[in-house]
Predict the 3D structure of the following.
Amino acid sequence: MAFQLCPYLSFNGTAKQAISFYKETFNAEIVELMTYGDMPDELPVEWKELVAHSRLRIQGTELMISDSPNPVPQGKQVSICLTFSSLEQCEQIYEALIQEGTVNMALKATSFSPGYADVTDKFGITFQISTEAELSA
């Protein structure tokens, strides 16, 4: 089963400043940056300038960063993002991680993924699980 594993940092409105800091500090390349205003979903206007998703490349490794629309408690700012090439693989890992864990967001299709979920496993580690979006020609 092939998948990508990446650290994901969540901020309370300071993601743009963090991205700038990490870009300079680590000589990182900003691969992707999307605000909530760029998304097709109907969202509150106060979220418009917040970072919905970003990817930085640091020495060949990726780091994802976003602002959370909900307050991120101390100790929960770092999660692990798992990205799968198939929904079947995503469902398999989702089912395993929710055993004795907590479902923060159930696995479902979103505007950015055919399957996305957020779960905290039985050890208290939070995982964002997603399926790569199909690219249209």
User: Anything to note?
Assistant: The chain has one domain: 3-131. Residues 15-26 form the longest helix (12 residues). The mean pLDDT is 90. DSSP finds two helices and eight strands in the chain.
